[in-house]
Amino acid sequence: MSGLEYPGGVREDGLPAVLSDPERLAALEASGMVGSGPESVFDDLTRLAVSVTGASISAITFVGETRTYWKSVPHLPYGGLEAWQNAVGDSFCYFAVGADGPFVVEDAEKDPRTAGHVAIGPWGVGAWAGFPIVSSDGQAIGTMCVIDPRPRQWRPQDLETLAVLARAVSSEISLRVSLGTARTALQSAETALKTAESALSTSRELARSLQDSLLPPVLRPVPAMDAAAQYLPASGDVEVVGDFYDLFHARGPWWTAVMGDVCGKGTEAAKVTALARYTLRADAGDHLSPAVVLDRLNTAMRAQRAPRFLTAVQATFRTTATGASGRLCLAGHPPALVRRADGRVRRIGARGTLLGVMDQVRLTDVRFRLAPGDLLFLYTDGACEARPAPDGPAPSRPIFDEEALAQALADTHGMSAAATNAHVAGALAEYHGGWASDDTALLSLRVPPRP
């Protein structure tokens, strides 16, 4: 490791010289993190990192000149200040601080940068990925990382989510420092307030970034199927919410589409969303019955004491020479809609039990078929419970309900999947005048008409 190069050079002991930089150490001291105990706001983020990446361990640490101070290591019981620290060279955390950027290792024993490192054995490091925690003036003061006991390839979405979470930690600390400055220095209250407002704005942007990281950036193409999804954020303050969707290959000719809505907002909702997506992807290849997969998700939520319940609709299907066929299951979710090629719309699905509340749930698979030109439409309740703007003109109906949604879908006769979503989104916007009371997710699966 002594041969590693860092932007600021190395000390005589081979560690990054920036560890001893006075400005960095002053920023670390100002953060108030050295010697502080665990807090739920940080533990929520590390648990979320584990849920999203599937890693065994996630940690938030703060790196001093000679010691590394642990802030959040949820898999370990808190043992007090003396127990929750170690020599700075006895973990990988200084790598990201020294590099002032991400440090990613897929095989710690074989990577020349880390081979033989003293932390591999005690921490069980097979693979490691970490991003620096940065103060408001740009000083790297700590690290947020995930660890796996076996070598692995980190997916781009894993690293993207970890980067967002590290920025969330940085924003939380900057906000605390700013608010502390405002309380103790009345003379600079105006400047501190502006800094706090900037940190709050950053937190909102991070909330939306985290929301986006829990949704697939693009849908995977399904052979002989036209698929499109659209996410419509609610108006007002930006928070992480629980609407999610996914479309992925299950096995053989079978594909799975899922739409879900976690109760509540914030980090707790994001944790349940991550658990749901991970579990559904893991189990859909083993069980082609959506009811079985959703039942297994309920079991996982109960076993992990998920802090929120959710509703979901899952369709497992395959394309055929005459269209597509499959099975669909509702777990407390609004019914799916099928728009036939001639514009007729019908509801499908037997409303089942929502997930995460009871050990035993009632879930039923319903078979469906799509002919050329037919479209399957999945949505969250923002599309069938939209309300008008509080200060807007009175609409023709008190709520944009399932009947209104079915009519909007019928009006998309002949449209592609993407155009269908856009039309429904436009109908909702026209109804509420641009003021959306709830986030909404839309997913359309259309069998292209025959030439």
How would you concisely characterize the structure shown here?
This protein is α+β, with helices and mostly antiparallel strands.
How would you characterize the overall build of this protein?
- With 451 residues, this protein is α+β, with helices and mostly antiparallel strands.
- The protein folds into 2 domains: 196 residues, Beta-Lactamase (2-Layer Sandwich); 227 residues, PPM-type phosphatase domain (Phosphatase 2c, domain 1, 4-Layer Sandwich), CATH 3.60.40.
- It has 10 helices and 16 strands.
- It has a 6-stranded antiparallel sheet, with helices on both faces.
- Helix 2 runs antiparallel to helix 5, helix 2 packs parallel to helix 7 and helix 5 packs antiparallel against helix 6.
- It starts with 21 loop residues before the first helix and ends in a 5-residue tail after the last strand.
Parts with pLDDT < 50 across at least 5 consecutive residues:
none
Number of helices: 10
What is the SS-derived class? alpha+beta
What is the H/E string? HHEEEHEHEEHHEEEHHEEEEEEHHE
Sheet having the most strands: 6 strands, antiparallel
Q: Report the end-to-end length measured between terminal Cα atoms.
A: 63 Å
Radius of gyration, taken over Cα atoms and rounded to an integer in Å? 25 Å
